[in-house]
Specification:
The structure holds two protein chains of two kinds.
Chain A lengths: L1 H17 L5 H13 L1 H39 L14 H34 L5 H29 L2 E3 L2 E13 L3 E4 L1 H4 L4 E5 L5 E10 L4 E6 L22 E6 L6 E9 L9 E5 L10 E4 L4 E8 L6 E6 L1 H13 L19 H8 L3 E9 L1
Chain B lengths: L3 H12 L3 H20 L5 H20 L9 H19 L17 H24 L3 H10 L4 H8 L4 H26 L1
Helix pairs in contact in B: 1-2, 1-3, 2-3, 2-4, 3-4, 5-8, 6-8, 7-8
The chains are: A alpha+beta, B mainly alpha.
Chain lengths: 373, 188
């Protein structure tokens, strides 16, 4: 108890020292004490630090409160509001419009200068001044060239990105349906391109040939070249219907790394009652297209393909039985194609999600479609 | 267009807790961030959250002595919000493709790192104060944060005199110190 009283006395001294309330001779004495007794020195440092933290804490609490007050005030005054028109187009388009105006002005200014100078030249200059007229032509041509360059830059920005000699036009997700390297994705992922390559979850790239695409069903089949053959796919492709409210999940490439997402089956039909697809409550992103939709046992029940623009988190998937139909059609048309859809009962049943994904993820690929330059 | 002079004044006002300046910055920038967040998979509440966090980051930045802002306020706020929002989307496993190529941004990674360290410190202090319990918490806040004098505190809390209140305050302070540093050291 007496020990605690001594401590309190010392804290009081430390506090008075730090607050500058000590008399000069007291300060000198205290500083000597600090030098000689490391414990006291430590107390001063800790006390100072704690005060600093406490002040930071207090300032932030006050500032947070004033931010909230300001927010309420501005909402009441109508300066800010929840309702906000969402810009329909991306920023890139806006950028383009911005540039378009600038280039248009540049072009018209260039045109006017050209006109004025050529008028001057023709009115003042004698007829033998051909050199100058030609030079002027080049100035105008240069402006045009510049304008074109700007246009090209904008085009490049619009087309996601350039890679070496090829221009990737679109991308999405695809997944294996056969251990031989056959892969399914959405036809719209290919976007009319003639070539594609795929990237695995470990970021290895493989060339892929487009075996078949069905724009109506929006399904395409690719074959991965030089694919290290698998014994067996970990999942099966489900032929039967799914049930309302089933818990579903997907893997895809809305960005360069494989991404997991989950949701529930919310309707047995797709957009506008389309019976080929079903509706899922899941927030899909561009790039998820073509990704597999699994039920909780790890069976593929569909191909994630579209989402509703107006409402958040409503996505649609093409039912997996369409893959069977497509493959049957394909086999009838061409005997050389030998796709064996994975039907073996899923080895993923009753496993937790993390181990399911570990087994599946190497079968889901990022699909990039491109046209050769 | 805001002149540089006005911007400097606004920042000075922000540093000094001038509510008019805070309000002006808020009004000038919130809509831009709201637009950005809503167009990138977020809600109005997300926008409010992220924007206020960026305001806190800016507020704490202007208070440091070494403070310099080498760009306009809106560019800074936008850059911080963009970074924070990107992080949150990534944590949720969502990602928006349209995120890139937007407005001008400045590198804010270092600032965000400092901000996150402060967030952690704030959380530790918050926890330490709440485990302190009453009346210790209010006593500490009254004296150190609201700068009330000991006499007023004694009256408010019902101590018989200022000396007893002071004694109690020191005891509370010792406990707070223990609680805070037990967490703070782990956090380091």
């Amino acid at each position: 108890m007496s020990n605690q009283r001594e401590d309190i006395g010392m804290i009081q001294n430390v506090e008075r020292y730090l607050e500058g309330k000590m008399l000069p001779n007291e300060i000198a004495y205290f500083e000597q004490l600090r030098k000689n007794i490391p414990e006291i020195d430590e107390m001063v440092v800790e006390h100072n630090m704690l005060m600093h933290q406490l002040n930071n804490y207090g300032n932030r609490v006050d500032f947070k409160n004033s931010l909230n007050d300001i927010h309420e005030k501005l909402s009441e005054q109508g300066n800010i509001s929840e309702g906000l028109e969402v810009t329909p187009k991306g920023r890139i388009i806006q950028l383009y419009h911005k540039y378009k105006r600038v280039t248009a002005i540049a072009a018209s200014v260039g045109g006017i200068i050209a006109l004025v100078i050529s008028a001057l030249v023709s009115s003042i200059g004698p007829a033998n001044n051909n050199d100058k007229i030609e030079q002027l032509g080049r100035v105008v041509a240069q402006i045009q060239q510049k304008q074109q360059n700007q246009g090209n830059t904008i085009n490049e920005v619009t087309k996601h990105f350039t890679e070496n000699e090829i221009i990737v036009t679109s991308g999405g997700t695809g997944f294996l349906i056969d251990a031989d390297g056959y892969l399914v994705t959405n036809a719209h992922v290919l976007h009319g391109s003639s070539n594609a390559y795929v990237m695995s979850n470990t970021h290895e790239n493989y060339d892929a040939t487009i075996v078949f695409r069905d724009e109506v069903r929006d399904i395409a089949i690719l074959k991965i070249e030089d694919f290290p053959q698998l014994k067996k796919l970990p999942y099966s492709i489900k032929k039967s219907e799914v049930d309302l409210g089933e818990e579903l999940f997907t893997l895809g490439y809305p960005r360069n790394d494989i991404t997991y997402n989950k949701g529930d089956l919310s309707a047995l039909t797709g957009y506008n009652g389309d019976t080929l697809s079903c509706q899922i409550q899941m927030s899909a992103n561009p790039g998820n297209s073509g990704g597999p939709v699994f039920n909780k046992n790890g069976d593929v029940i569909g191909i994630l393909s579209t989402r509703e623009k107006q409402s958040q988190g409503v996505s649609f998937a093409i039912k997996s039985k369409n893959i069977y139909r497509l493959v049957d059609d394909l086999k009838n048309a061409d005997n050389s194609i030998d796709i064996k859809l994975s039907t073996a009962s899923s080895s993923l049943k009753n496993k937790d999600r993390v181990s399911q994904i570990k087994q599946i993820e190497s079968c889901v690929f990022l699909v990039k479609a491109f046209n050769k330059k | 267009m805001k002149s540089e002079y006005t911007e400097q004044l606004l920042l000075k006002g922000l540093a000094n807790n001038d509510s008019k300046a805070i309000e002006t910055i808020y009004k000038d920038n919130f809509k831009m961030i709201q637009n950005f967040i809503i167009n990138n998979n977020g809600s109005y509440d997300d926008a409010r959250d992220v924007f206020q966090e960026a305001m806190i980051a800016l507020y704490e930045k202007v208070q440091s002595e070494s403070f310099v802002l080498t760009c306009k306020i809106n560019t800074y706020v936008y850059s911080v919000c963009r970074r924070l929002w990107l992080k949150r989307l990534q944590n949720q496993g969502k990602f928006s493709n349209q995120m890139d190529i937007v407005e001008e941004t400045v590198p804010v990674e270092d600032d965000i790192e400092v901000h996150e360290k402060r967030n952690a410190e704030f959380a530790i202090m918050e926890r330490a104060l709440s485990s302190l319990g009453e009346p210790c918490k209010s006593l500490i806040e009254g004296y150190y944060l609201k700068k009330m004098d000991m006499q007023a505190i004694a009256v408010e809390f019902g101590y018989t005199n200022a000396d007893n209140a002071k004694n109690q305050k020191y005891k509370c302070f010792m406990r707070l110190k223990k609680l805070f540093f037990s967490q703070y050291n782990i956090g380091e």
